[in-house]
Amino acid sequence: MLRPGIRRLRGLRLLGFPLRGFPGRPRSVCSRQGEENPPLSAESRWKDRAETVIIGGGCVGVSLAYHLAKAGMKDVVLLEKSELTAGSTWHAAGLTTYFHPGINLKKIHYYSIKLYEKLEEETGQILAGLYNPGDGHIDPYSLTMALAAGARKYGALLKYPAPVTSLKPRSDGTWDVETPHGSMRANRIVNAAGFWAREVGKMIGLEHPLIPVQHQYIITSTIPEVKALKRELPVLRDLEGSFYLRQERDGLLFGPYESQEKMKVQDSWVTSGVPPGFGKELFESDLDRIMEHVEAAMDLVPVLKKADIIRIVNGPITYSPDILPMVGPHQGVRNYWVAVGFGYGIIHAGGVGKYLSDWILHGEPPFDLIELDPNRYGKWTTTEYTEAKARESYGFNNIVGYPKEERFAGRPTQRVSGLYKTLESKCSMGFHAGWEQPHWFYKPGQDAGYRPSFHRTNWFEPVGSEYQQVMQRVGVIDLSPFGKFNIKGKDSIRLLDHVFANVIPKVGFTNISHMLTPKGRVYAELTVSHQSPGEFLLVTGSGSELHDLRWIEEEAIKGGCDVEIKNITDELGVLGVTGPYSRKVLQQLTSEDLSDNVFKFLQTKSLKVSNIPVTAIRISYTGELGWELYHRQEDSAALYDAIMNAGQEEGIDNFGTYAMNALRLEKAFRAWGLEMNCDTNPLEAGLESFVKLNKPADFIGKQALKQIKAKGLKRRLVCLTLATDDVDPEGNESIWYDGKVVGNTTSGSYSYHIQKSLAFAYVPVELSKVGQQVEVELLGKNYPAVVIQEPLVLTEPTRSRLQKKGGKDKI
Question: What value does the mean pLDDT of the chain take?
Fold first, then answer.
């Protein structure tokens, strides 16, 4: 245990510093002399009604209040239990950086930095911030106070101390918010309560998957070499040593991210709650826990060896399982929004405040941030899982990320399909919204390990074999992670006709339909099956299950629709059986006629396969002949065994999602979240055939889409082929033309058909013609690419239709 006094420890000298917190110090522990402002006193007035109540006075909550009020919203109220910045904001290191691996999270970072640059001029606060090209840092306390001053300037009420003691939802969607000062009626509430967010969630029966972790950083006294510098040092991040380092006054500040085995989770707060009154306190420092990183920092920056440590800060920060915050409306609870789980709240605060403000005011997100959707988690996200993943995420903070990366802590969850035990020893599993799903299968003698790489690795040849399996014989894939909803009731058709841009399929048929935002962007893609009059099965991707369900539920309420909406994702398993022999195999197991004229493409029927009840849809994301079989989860193993036994003569075998991705790209099938999302409209994404602008219903986004069509497009999605050397596009790679970046890929794969790389990409309309040559940047090298006529490979229904019309010459 470190004790006050002077002590030299492996080259660093420890000057006296308190073991716990700094009582009465209402600012960032790293703010600079002469830059501290007294806390602005809270207002004494009270409101009985509010448009938006924000719970939590850290930098994120105050940023949201500022942006809502500045945008013109009246009656914005922020409630803070103690004082502004209490929790994690006041002791944050204050790093601000443009960089993030996510394309749209870069927008959040960029907006934050640009906002922080101009706040002083707007609000009159001294920010204590530094702008460096590409990087910098800022005093979190002064930042929060500047945002608070701006929020008040535009009419927001910031009330503290005002702890929320109860949240009561009302039948009209409003909330009664109880505090010691009285009750307040709110049209919506936003949980921005930091490490108290779990307690706020529990008030309404939600268990937010958040956990506080201890993060330490070290501040040195004056270092002569640093003091002598004419300009401030840039922020340094050392991935190998796993630490960041920046100048702090005339000394240095550096903070490590220790391994998951050494890092400390404050799990008692999860089981017993945050201690009452905890606000601007710290944990006892533990230098031994981070010593290997301290030594790495001294090796890289030798002046540290002579430096004196004047302070070690060990404070709580809140982690979600994947280290990303949870931002947006929450499924299952009306008008309840969250902005929680910020491991990097300072750089995210400005951008997230603007992002949420725009969403609240305009009814849709300004751009796609599905990776921050709070609905990416569900009932499967247990406390044990959250802790295991938070440890892993913290420990992996500075590792290199690879394409197709898998992280294994906390797996498997309780959410496994009925085939998990059957398949786990035969394949490499991938993680999809809590599910384990086969990515690729290996045979005896093949390298079965997880081998992440930027190049083609041990999965490449096995996936090629699976591709040929589907194209030439018959393959089986576990599709149980699909999100699945049952919708029925007298207003079901009216509801779906309003939320989908496509027509409603006839009874017994299926179609691909898209939900659009009011501005005409693609919010979701689902398959819609009309099972019986007024009853539908809706299917979506695993990652957008609750994301899509929330939208549908909200529109049902807005429209006063008499419908029953049930999430049956965990109840139903799904097997895909596809390939030229799929009909022959399945026909052995059912009395239902599966011939092409009787069971048509996109038709759906209830039948029995090996005496097991299934809903069969003739559809396959591979583009080949096939069926998806929806069945009770407990029947999965028996159904799988029956199909595999029946297909022995046809050489049946398994295939995984890697092969399916290669197959769908060759057929030019788009994927939601890649080729289309809230950043794209369906016209530029090439989805015109699924959008019926002439249908009678005034579906969401219809009018906006008409305007987009009339104005013309600026970019289009194209299909590219490129010859590379042992590397394939994955998505988000730059497209170059004439020495400039003109677009980006959205997804890609190796085409086992033409033995070249294949990718979707957005390019300017003038560069979208077939034959156009561009370049794709992969691993720092530009490869020639050409726009091709899509699809590269015709789908089975198209091939079959052409064959009937004109023989093989037309195919």
Answer: 90
